[in-house]
Fold these 4 entries.
Entry 1:
Amino acid sequence: MMQRTVVAWDDSVESRTATAWMLDRTRHAAPGHEVVLVRVIEEVGLIPGATTDPGEYAAATIAVAEEAVRVARELPSARVTSQVVIGDTLTALRRFTDPATLVVLGTQARTTPHLRFAWAIGTRLAATALGPVAIVPRHVSGVRSGIVAGVDGSETSTRAALFAAAEAVLRGVPLHLLHVWLEPPVWQADYVYDDLTLELLTAEHAAIVHDAASAVKRAYPGLTLTANAVRGPTVRSLLDTPPLPELVVVGCRSRGAVNRFLLGSASHELILNLDVPVIVISDRVNDPRLEGETS
């Protein structure tokens, strides 16, 4: 279970939405849970002779401290502090990431094309974090309940499933594991998959979600759990799983050095289209229960 929650706060609507989500989650946490509100002031390093305004730093320090006092009143059993950091926002927030810390940030309403929005702080932080990152949209649509975790047979997705299970136990809600697949593309226009081939593919993908469910059941035997493999588009299947989930958890595998700021295609598209909070679990986040099974 997470020992600390860090919220990126700047008094924007997005950061207030992220803080509200954190409050709702942390009310279920054990006493003594640490909450840190972080205000990052972008350092003016590219303009010759320009420096950070001391007045801005002082005002930010007062504002985030006042917000920490308000949060502490809402969470009397938690340890709430605040910090002001000067520097690049991505680098500053990444320093707070570790396997025992959940970093929470809000998203801005997307008004630009996907390509430009892809480099928003949320997607870049999730791709480089050393721990889980929660990205909270400004608006959540529909009536929602339960948690959905996407699994694909990788160790990272199993870690995501275990993390989602811990969240479900924390909230007292059911967990649904979902493996989404599509048959490989057929390039010959006159060829289609026969029934036997589709049955074999279906059984193969059903085994993937079954294995993930077995790992979750061993770790959390009392959890209400369902698991399914479905054919369809990955992102819409995760977001539209009935009943609509209150949280989606997915894994993210690291890319090479050149693409170190990029998420995998599914998790990237999920963030671009999210209408519900999403937690991204990097493959840098290890789970000791999984390590014990695979060692």
Note: The beta strands are 4-8, 34-41, 79-86, 101-106, 133-136, 147-150, 175-181, 225-231, 247-252, 278-282.
Entry 2:
Amino acid sequence: MLARFLLNSLTGILITFLLIGGVYAVTDSRAVLDLPPAVLAMVLSLLLGLGVGTVNCVLMGLYPLWDVAWSVITRPLFLASGVLFLYEDLPPLAQDILWFNPLMHITGLMRSGFYPSYTAAYVSVTYVLATSLILFALGLILMGRFHRDILNR
């Protein structure tokens, strides 16, 4: 699991550098990249991916149907993560619901690293970090408990 995490992390980081570097090289962009929020958003996304991946590793090992269910459940996640719209432009009810999506916080933090005038007041690094670490701990506990059952399937 650690090897898969490292491989996917390094691949994602390399693609990010190539994509952002390519966009800055090809276009006449005057965007000012603020590295601390962008790097923090990348680290938080890696931690969240590790936590969700650990829980999914156990669930997919125990319940093969979970793979299909997870695929269906996460389809609308692209829309609910604030990639196509700003959190501030949403109605208050949608803001109250989507605030609990950790990806919305990561997207807002990354956006604040690329747009200096964008202030993501709703972002809670503590919430994303706590969610990631709780999911990771839960996944490790479940893996410790059920690893023999998963390997025997």
Note: Residues 35-62 form the longest helix (28 residues).
Entry 3:
Amino acid sequence: MTALRIPGRARVVIALAAFIGLVAFTWPFAVAPGKFGSSYAPPLIFGALLVLVLAVVIAEISSGGIDAKALAMLGVLSAVNAGLRPLGAGTAGVETVFFILVLAGRVFGPGFGFTLGCTSLFASALLTGGVGPWMPYQMFGCAFVGMLAGLLPGTRRRRVEVPMLAVYGAFSGYLFGFLLNLSFWPFSTDPNSSIAYLPGLPFTEQWHRYLLFDLATSLGWDTGRAVTTFTAVLVVGPAVLTVFRRAARRANFEPTVRFEAPRGADAAVGTQAVARPVGAENS
């Protein structure tokens, strides 16, 4: 059970943003060769991704999916991730932010995990000067990591939960690299290479070329990220999960129920008191 329940409208917005983000990653396999696919698609994708990230966050806040307490939690964890990332990024693929995304997505839910992935990388890019056309891809890659962590099957046994999250953390390290490579693969390889993107090839051959490209260029980096996340979740995961769940209980994200005496004519006939969420009288 997740600590934050996202309303239906916000779920639709997040699902739509995730779908379009996935399409943006996989466009080399779907866009027909031609002027649009080769010249204008990437800038449009970058702009659309930035707008979608902002739309997701605004929709979350305005729809009530993230109240003031959850927004404060989002800000704190985004700042923590932004501070942790420079400690590992760029060193043999070691990445120090994924275990926070995995654990926070697990406790607070897929909607929170998706938004935290976006805001963490955005804050990190501003802090380290890493703003560029790759930033939207990084934001959405981390958003998928946090979202999928919140969608993992539930279990009450800590002995099962932590190893499951550790294995998922390792998987997410490879998944992030696999997705991010798609952002520059069509533009960075010699067209004469056997692993280069060539518009117009059948999907199976294009997919084979990309798998070879991913294995040849980033397997080592992705392994460093996977090992780091796996180890961090195993070592500090139980303690961090306990802290997150305790913070969620104290924040009391769910509306508080209190009993009120009926008013008016109902009170005269002795109608029983009813339970209403705090603040419901203003709705």
Note: The first strand starts at residue 257 and ends at 260.
Entry 4:
Amino acid sequence: MHRGESVPFFESRTWSHPEVPEDLARLRREAPLVHCITNGVVTNFTANVLLALGASPAMVETIEEVADFVRIAQVLLINVGTITTRDAEAMFEAAAAARETDTPWVLDPVAFGALEFRSRIVRELIAFRPAVIRGNASEILALGGETGGAKGVDATVSSTEAVQAAVALAAGSGAVVALSGEIDYITDGSSVIPVPGGHEMMTKVTGMGCTLGALIAALLPVTGSAFRAATAASAIYAEAGERAGRDARGTGSFAVSFLDQLSTIGTEAAP
């Protein structure tokens, strides 16, 4: 898909856009309670990312509690990364409660298209109307009915190749689609905002995409706009990744530096 072919592309959004630090500052002031049903590989990192940015994470996942907690939290994240049958039941309970209470929520369809069980669960979850669907190029292509070429949870095609599928998915589902990759693309089905930046080491640290979904969720209740929340989250992540990459000696120090950058970005004194 090329610019102007089907939907208009807006100017690229980066940290320097005034809305982005404004949205982050509001997140820190309001400290929204984020209900995370996420995968076991990234639970700790997700909580630390949200804390670094000023949000309040809660990892409430048992089926006996999820619906009640949705009614307490400002926003819900559902990530199917390490899904089990019991997890799926809890996800349906939470998504149904979110629909009932008009609680905004984010769906991360990890490895959609690679395995039938998780793919079926994701299709059923989309019927509960997530505000945002965040995925990599392979996942978004597969959701659009195309061959995504995934290798496990990793994409094997570029985000640019999946923009048309992202636009179609947004138009068909009613969700904003946040397509992650070397360039992130955010679309509501009628327009697209590219978000460049980041660092190549972000692909070597577990949970970068999953925690981006958590940040999108945290921004949803404070911006009041799924499109703006997803765009700001991608821009914040790209900037923090670039800064962390300048300091890191390898992937371990990058992960630590990334958390440091998230905790300090936007708090720098004016020159």
Note: The chain has ten helices and eight strands.
